[in-house]
Amino acid sequence: MTRSNPPRRVAVTGASLLTPVGNSLTSAWAALVAGQSGVGPITKFDPTGHKTAIAGELKDFNPENYLNKKATKRFDLFIQYSVVAAKMALSDSGLNPDAELTEKMGCIMGCGLGGLSTIETNHEVLLKRGPDRISPFFIPMMIGNMGPGQVAIELGLKGPNFLVTTACSAATHAIGWAFQLIRDQGYPAMLTGGAEAVITPLAIAGFNALNALSTRNHDPAGASRPFDKDRDGFVISEGAGLMVLEEWEHAVTRGAEIYAEVAGFGASCDAYHMTAPPENGQGAVLAMRAALDDAAATDLSLADIGYINAHGTSTGLNDLIETRAIKAVFGRQAEKLAISSTKSMTGHLLGAAGGVEGVITALTLKKGLIPPTINLDTPDPECDLDYVPKVARRANLTAAMSNSFGFGGTNGCLIFKAHSC
Known about the structure:
The chain is globular. It has helices at 25-33, 69-74, 77-93, 99-102, 116-129, 138-142, 146-155, 170-185, 201-209, 248-253, 282-295, 316-330, 343-346, 353-367; strands at residues 10-18, 40-41, 54-55, 106-110, 161-164, 189-196, 239-247, 260-269, 305-309, 338-340, 369-370, 393-394, 399-406, 410-418. Helix 3 (77-93) crosses helix 7. The protein is α/β, with parallel strands linked by helices. The protein has a single domain (10-418), classed as Thiolase/Chalcone synthase (Peroxisomal Thiolase, Chain A, domain 1, 3-Layer(aba) Sandwich), CATH 3.40.47. The relative contact order is 0.19. The strands form three sheets. The chain has a ten-stranded mixed sheet, sandwiched between helices. The longest helix is centred in the first third of the chain and has 17 residues, at 77-93. The protein contains 14 helices and 14 strands.
C-alpha cells in the first residue's frame, strides 16, 4: 500500500453496542439518552468477602443468536462479545464484503485483560484435578488476540489483524490505527473497537487492592458518579463496542449510511506513574492536541469541537486531572464545551471503553443529542465545567472528541466530524 496524498477521508458506516444498558445499538442509545444506569449487584459469582459487590453486567446476552453451540463453548466470553459485536456492526453497515474486499479488510481491536475468567477456571482445574485435565482450548480461549482473530475467521477478513492492549485506552488506539490504515495506506475498510469481559473474583479483588473501585454497594445505580464530589471509584463493566470504518468514496459509491467522519487521532504517554496521571494532565493534553493537529487536515479547528465524551471514570484523580487537561487545551472555550461521561451509566468497560464511547460519540453527532452525566448531585468544586448533568441535551454539533486514558500513562483521543459538515 502507498501513502495517499492528499489523505483519504474515513467514514463510520456501521456500529454495534453490547453494554450493561442494552445489547443493541437501538436499546443502548435509548437507555443512554434517558439517563438509565446499567449497574447492579454482581451475579456472575458470589461476591461475599469482596469490598465491591456491584458491576455493569450484560443482561440477557444470548450468543447462540449469532454463534453455534460449539463456538460458545470454545470462546471465552470476551471472544463471544467480539464476534457477536463484529457481526452486528457489519450487518448495520450494509457492507457485504466480496472476495476482493476481504483480502484487504481487517479487524483491529482493543482489550485490556483478555480471557481472565478462562485463566481463573483452568487454574482451579490445575490445582484440584492436575495438569492433564487442562482444556486443550485453554490457550486459544485466553489469549487476547483471539478476539479479532476469531472475528476474522468468522467473517473471512484477510487484512491487518491485531489486538491493542494499552489498558483503558486500548479500543481508542485500535480505532485510531484502523483509521490511519484507511486514510494513509489505502485499505478500503476495517472493523474496529474493543471488547472486555473481566467481571471475575480476581479482577474485583485486584482493583479493590488498588482502592480503584466504588464500594457503594447499597446504591448500584448511583455508584458511578463522574465529576461528583462524593465519587469513590469506578464501576467495572463488560461488553463491546465496534464500528465499521470505510474509505469515504467507497462508502458514498455504494450508498452507505454514514454516522460520522473520523477526523483525527492522537496518542501520548504520561511517562510519570504506573496508575496515576500527573497533576497538570500533560499526557492527556498532548493526546488531545495531537488529535486536533491531525484533524486540521479536514479543515477542523479547536473552535469546531462542541462536545467531549470524557474518559470520566468516577475516580478522584482522573476526573480532576481530565478537567484540568481540557482547560489547558481549550482555554476559555472550555467553558462553552458540553462534556459528559457515559461511564456514569455504562460503568467502565476497561479496554473496550473507547470502542463503546467512540460509537456513542458518532451517534451523538448523527442524532444531535448529547447523553448526560447522571449521578452528578454535588459537583466537585474543582470540576467546574459543563458536564451535561442528568438530562440529555439537543445540540447542533460540527465535531466531537472522545478521550481515553489508561494505566501505564497511555492516552488516546479521537475526533469525529458530523457528516453534514
